[in-house]
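Appendix B. One record, verbatim.
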Amino acid sequence: MSDEGPPDAWEPHERRLWEAFRRGEWCDDVPEVRAEVVRWLLVAAPRPVPGSLARLRLAGTRITGRLDLAEADVRCAIRLRSCRLDEVPCFDGGHFNALELRDCALPGLTAVGTRIDRECVLADSVIGGTLDLRSLSVGTRLSLNRSRTAASDGRPAIDAESLSVDEGFSAVGLECAGPVRLTSAQIRDALTLRGARIRGADACLQAAELSVGGGLHLDLGFTSEGGIDLYGASIGGTLHLEESTLTGTGEGRREPALQLLCATVGGDIQAGRGLVVHGCVDLRDTTVRGSVVLKRARLHHPDGTALTAERLHVGGTLNCRGGFVAQGTVDLCDARIGGSVLLEGADLTGLAGPALRANGIEVGAEFNCCDGLTAHGRISLSSITVRAKLCFKDALFDVPSGSTALTCRRSTASELALQPREAPVGTVDLRHTRVGVLRDDPAGWPRALLLEGLVYDSVHPTLPGGDRLPWLDRDPTGFALQPYEQLAATYRQHGRDADARTVLLAEQRRIRTTLIWPARLWSVVQDLTVGYGYRPARAAWLLTALFAAGTAVFATWPPQFTGDGARPDFQPAIYTLDLLLPVVDFGQEPAFTARGPAQWAAVVLVSAGWLLATTAAAGANRVLRRN
């Protein structure tokens, strides 16, 4: 520190500033001061008045000329309030104790590679050009609260690449007419942009590889007119997006409104409660250790994908319930959700693609597309795994007739509840899916239903077999064998053998429609006689009728004895049984031969006996083979 007085050329008001500096007092009676005077005070550092702390505290002053403190080593605090700087001050490469510019006006500021041991406050100020904070290091907190910045010549409003802040970075109410760059910045505590308004030609907030130890607050009135790029960001706490408005850029909002790609979030993503997005939200390959909450959020990207979260990993719940609206595809392909996926009451619209696409997703608990979910477009859930229930109860599939309403192929769930609000006019595809419990409602059965390969342990409600047959007969591609076998097996498993036989009989009748005419004729005979082996009582009644008719005929027109030896007594009933049962010999048929009309009756009985025996054997073989 210098013991000399101020230079002789100084004006009286500048000498007053020199004295206030030595005493560490506020100087608010100097309307104007040269920048070289301020530099001299800070660099020469006059010795303080005994008992005082030397520091620059200047209020309500205009600083003329350029304040150049590049590479300066200033050990005292610099605090300017309500001051106006005519030229861009330069703090590049310097080392400072504390820097505060509050309620000031300046054409810009550059502090590249600067180190500030304590706080850096640039609050409530108007900055007419770029705020260049590249590689700035702040020992405690950095504050840009309620400041306004405006870029020129395509430069960013705030350039803070590789910024390092040992505590928090607060920019509440910040307004930027130009992009904000925080690429590779490191904030040990929270980064707060609550209520900030940023607009930029491309990405208005460029924060790739950002590292935040605490939470990231882009909420409570935060507005971006341009994309937010958080590629590869690491956020230790929660990402807050409540009550914010994000807007993508490019033709048709081609660039994402929020790009959180390959990032890590240690807490939750709280993006519900008033979030409005015009453009795509990109969460691909991101890991969220907590939950993702989009409850009551509104995403608008009708010409493309509103939410893309391919390979997203969420430790908790994905909550898109209670008024969540997405105009554009919601893409959750190959995501891993540790808790539940909740879409109750959501409104999804897919114009350029499916309303919901979640192929390959794994859900640790429930996947709820129920309780008022409305899908204006197809829902695609192929190859998914749901540990608990996959639910479509009271959901609405709003698709044109002849299109696909729901695709759920090659999937696994403990329970599938397919009870929509209205019967879908589009196709529901459940092929090669495995569920424990299948719940549906006859009033909600779709017009077209693909069931081939669907496997289930039980189905509710437990309707009679005949009432379930229309459910099986809705495959637009034609008859499939496996759905009948599966339903019959389920009935047998639960002790409902009569219902199982009803289903299997219907199966054989459907098979008949696929056969050539000779085989089809033989199938008709089996159906009429023994019901393909599933109606054995029918053969018994037919045998009884033939036995009674034959007995009456042969009692009226007894046959003649043609045997050798003693003539046995003729018994019409036993003779009829001899004719009807081809493998049984009671000794009557060899001894007697019918004549006249009785001969035709014998021919009919023998033919009927062989026919019944053959069809009964075929039916029994079919039944035993299945069992």
